[in-house]
Specification:
alpha+beta, 206 residues, two-stranded antiparallel sheet, five-stranded mixed β-sheet, globular
Length: 206
């Protein structure tokens, strides 16, 4: 094969990898405006210092698991930020999603399993409270499509929140399954404990 042709093919492949997270992927994210922090004065969201990461060069997207304090600090909350990556592996977009119980003290006693309605859109706490821990995992285009499908399904029909049956930790593990991530074990523990168990289950050599 002529050297000129080899060089042209190499440049084509490199260009495709470099542009993996570029605007051609933007239509995949249509209809996710409710998953932004625009209402809280942070339309682009905010970065977080990473506690752990699993990144592959050339992946066009990511999901980032975050842990923050709650108003009472204990037990805290776990949620996700996801979006596209640029050629250097930096986030181009940030969409926020998590399972947040609504009116737990008021409504839990009304259900036999003490479950309550939930919201998966970001709250002011997700957008403004400090991030205690963050774990980023890069995604292939196929994995990102699966994540977007799960996010849209949750937006259309938010799962009911239950302390012991399905809480923010279950929801995070469910979304993380698109990348083959394993759950972190007991979901009824405080978020700071579950978060580190989640990392340990998926990054045992860390």
């Amino acid at each position: 094969m002529p050297l000129r042709l080899i060089l042209a093919l190499a440049l084509t492949v490199a260009g495709a990898a470099a542009n993996a997270g570029e605007p051609k992927f933007a239509p995949m994210e249509a209809g996710l405006s409710s998953l932004s922090c625009t209402a809280y004065g942070k339309p682009s969201g905010k970065p977080a210092r990473l506690t752990a990461a699993r990144l592959r060069e050339g992946d066009p997207a990511y999901v980032e698991f975050r842990q923050r304090p709650s108003r009472q600090w204990f037990p805290g909350h776990m949620y996700m930020v996801f979006g596209r990556l640029d050629a250097a592996g930096n986030p181009l977009t940030r969409h926020y999603i998590g399972l947040d119980p609504q009116h737990y003290l008021r409504d839990a006693h009304r259900s036999p399993d003490h479950s309550v309605a939930s919201a998966v859109t970001p709250s002011g706490k997700d957008c403004r409270f400090p991030v205690i821990n963050a774990y980023r995992v890069s995604l292939t285009a196929t994995q990102y499509k699966r994540l977007l499908a799960k996010a849209r399904a949750a937006l259309a029909h938010p799962p009911r929140w239950s302390l012991n049956r399905y809480n923010c930790h279950n929801f995070a593990a469910d979304l993380g399954s698109v990348a083959g991530l394993k759950p972190g074990g007991n979901v009824a523990v405080p978020s700071f404990a579950y978060f580190h168990a989640f990392i340990q289950a998926n990054e045992p050599q860390r």
